[in-house]
Amino acid sequence: MNDGNKSTMKRADIVRMALESLGANKLRSLLTMLGITIGVFSVIGVMTAISALQGSVETGLSFLGSNIFQFSRTPAFRGNDLEKYRNRPNITYDQARRFAYLMQEHTEVVCFKIWKSNIAATREGRKTNPNQKIVGTNAYFLEANSNTIASGRMLNASDVELARPVAVIGADIERKLFPNENPLGRSLRIAGRNYTVIGVFVSKGSAFGGSNDDTSAIPISRYFADFGSSNRSLGISVQSRTQASYDATLGKAVGILRVVRGLDAGEPDDFDIYSNDSLTAAFTQVAGTIRLGALVISGIALLAAGVGIMNIMLVSVTERTREIGIRKSLGARRGDILGQFLLESLFLSELGGVIGIGLGVLGGNALALYLKADVVFPWGWAAVGLIVCSAIGIGFGMVPAQKAAALNPVDALGYE
């Protein structure tokens, strides 16, 4: 038999003995792998979920139309400075109308919006879930929110001026309340008030666990008549004429809103501005923080797991001292013993990593499916996870492997 075949057989024997040793101590091997599994699961689960959500960020957050920015009393993501924003004065309807008047030479699209959430719509015994939204708005809602009309028409200036009790409803509402009839011209009740349907929005689907088709739009003047105007703060959306004029339009709008709000030159803005880009950037920042937290937590777990592997392998070396002595007396070399114990450590680490990756991908995609995002497999992070597990197995397994390989066969055979 040539030397190559002998070398191959020797490596196969080392692998077999390593696996047999791990199989002989199943509970110990399982507990040792558990730390690796938890660490890898935490990071892979988070990375899978974020990667899946990243693919639907544009759909989920890009609810504003093209070249649109919006003013509001508070930012979209408030953080921990709630008191700062709570003390800001509301953006009133009178301020919004004055703003629109002063912006006429800079843009044609100024949309007002005021929302009411967690309401139900009903019609002749049928009822939606109490998670619907109603928005009081004007004739520019389509442009400002990237919507289109499937049937009927959108609100117009006359509807707003006369405070007509009319509504443009979402596709979900049409399906639930008008399953077998044309809703146009028919009445329904939203939040206990009567409205006539004049249009239906095109379905936009779902994102982040919620539907984009559960909104009804009514004239903002009707909204105030039905739900009151006190202590209400509006959102104001503005569309620049072109992408090239976006920055100039934004600058003009900020200046005009400051004038409308009565702010002096040295005073800070008492309103916030956001756009699709700023919302996406905010999501990216939040996702980055979550990723960092997951890496820190998993790093601590993997470090603890590595120490656990080293301790378990040191115990294994002590328990198998006579076995090592016998193998050495039969011709096993230092490298054979070193390789066997490193393989055992590597197998434990890699198997724990594979299980952690599998559970992390399942858990992350389960969350993604719940939030109506696409399923993904984070190949890059999975590869990194396996590399890290290999490094842990070899790094923390080296000390016990070297201790086993350095044993004197005579002393090892006499060990009790």
Lay out the secondary structure.
Blueprint: H1 3-24, H2 26-54, H3 57-61, E1 68-72, H4 82-86, H5 93-102, E2 109-119, E3 121-123, E4 126-127, E5 132-137, H6 141-145, E6 149-152, H7 157-162, E7 166-169, H8 171-177, E8 187-190, E9 193-201, E10 206-207, E11 210-211, E12 215-219, H9 220-227, E13 235-239, H10 246-260, E14 272-275, H11 276-319, H12 321-329, H13 334-370, H14 379-405, H15 409-413
Parallel strand pairs: 5-12, 7-9
Antiparallel strand pairs: 1-13, 1-14, 2-5, 2-13, 3-4, 3-8, 6-9, 8-9, 10-11
Features:
2 domains; six-stranded mixed β-sheet; disordered N terminus; 15 helices; alpha+beta; 14 strands; 416 residues; elongated
Task: Describe this entry's structure for a reader.
This protein has 15 helices and 14 strands. It has two domains: 3-58 and 282-413, no CATH class; 89-270, no CATH class. It has helices spanning 3-24, 26-54, 57-61, 82-86, 93-102, 141-145, 157-162, 171-177, 220-227, 246-260, 276-319, 321-329, 334-370, 379-405, 409-413, and strands at 68-72, 109-119, 121-123, 126-127, 132-137, 149-152, 166-169, 187-190, 193-201, 206-207, 210-211, 215-219, 235-239, 272-275. The protein is of the alpha+beta class. Helix 11 packs antiparallel against helix 13 and helix 13 (334-370) runs antiparallel to helix 14. The protein is elongated, with a radius of gyration of 33 Å. Strand 3 (121-123) and strand 4 form a beta hairpin. The longest helix is centred in the C-terminal third of the chain and has 44 residues, at 276-319. The strands form three sheets. The chain has a six-stranded mixed beta sheet with strand order 12-5-2-13-1-14. Strands 3, 4, 6, 7, 8 and 9 form a six-stranded mixed beta sheet that branches. A two-stranded antiparallel ribbon has the order 10-11.
